[in-house]
């Protein structure tokens, strides 16, 4: 599937299947002996989506081709650290008194159901209609109850999502904690800029934003590695074409872009974030691209 301005998808196709892939990795990370994260909804959500190979991965019944084993381990290691980084970001924001959160491109993110939100917190989740419909149905079937006031906002992030967010009750006067996790590479460069412009316009003083940024040239390396993994799944019926799903080429550096718009920005290399959690970044060829990202936290004074 090649991206167009009006493409849409569910959790088993297009960009949506990447949400299922990373949820599978979160399930594997949660099942590690000394886990960095605990996402009890990841495996059930993957089962509910029903992409056979991912179900087999989380259940330990899929035959992982030898050439894919390292890549699956790498994806799991990255998702453990990435998930924990964003979990900690929300915990810090809550400790600082922020009671409004927005999860951009939430996919199968279950934070609205598993984090310890302070009373009075509202969590908005934004993603495509079919993605959130599928997720809502799966969570309802599981009898899961959100741990905050959760509002699902179905809209394309390349369109006028601020209007949809406001219509769902978003308070522009309240400080907000925003996350854009696993999203930027799926947006065209101009849409990334517009995303940050919109976030900036909607952010009252005291708002915070966390994201992970890959330079355009790194996205190409990332695609190449991710595609090797995806190709090893082809026989198992998983059709993933990363080059067609992501947008490569020059894009503004997210940290610099936000700093120029009045945010106080801290950026850390992914390898540093790993070290901060006492984990070494895996070595080997799978590391290309994946190691080269910056974890960003920005605060609006
Ligand atoms: C790799 S997944 C990440 C999901 C989630 N943030 C996580 O880390 O588990 C990418 C997500 O971005 C969403 N997405 C990508 N482009 C989007 C757009 N233009 N509008 C809305 N959602 C989008 C997809 O539907 C998918 O859920």
General description of the model:
This protein is an alpha/beta fold. The chain has one domain: Vaccinia Virus protein VP39 (Rossmann fold, 3-Layer(aba) Sandwich). Helices cover 45% and strands 14% of the residues. Strands 3-2-1-4-5-7-6 form a 7-stranded mixed β-sheet, with helices on both faces. α1 packs antiparallel against α2, α1 runs parallel beside α3 and α4 packs across α9. It is globular. Bound molecules: S-adenosylmethionine.
- The CA-CA distance between the termini, in Å, is 42 Å
Output the structural class. alpha/beta
Radius of gyration: 18 Å
Tally of discrete structural domains:
1
Number of strands: 7
- Which ligands does the model contain, each kind named once? S-adenosylmethionine
* Second rung of CATH, namely the architecture: 3-Layer(aba) Sandwich
CATH class: Alpha Beta
Give the uncertain stretches in residue-range form: none
Along the chain, the helix and strand elements come as: HHHHEHEHEHEHEHHHEHE
Q: In CATH terms, what is the fold-level topology? A: Rossmann fold
What's the story with the biggest beta sheet? Answer: 7 strands, mixed
Share of β-strand residues: 5-15%
Spatial ordering of strands, largest sheet: 3-2-1-4-5-7-6
Percent of residues in helices comes to 40-55%
EC number: 2.1.1.-
Family: Belongs to the UPF0677 family.
Function: Exhibits S-adenosyl-L-methionine-dependent methyltransferase activity.
Enzyme class: transferase
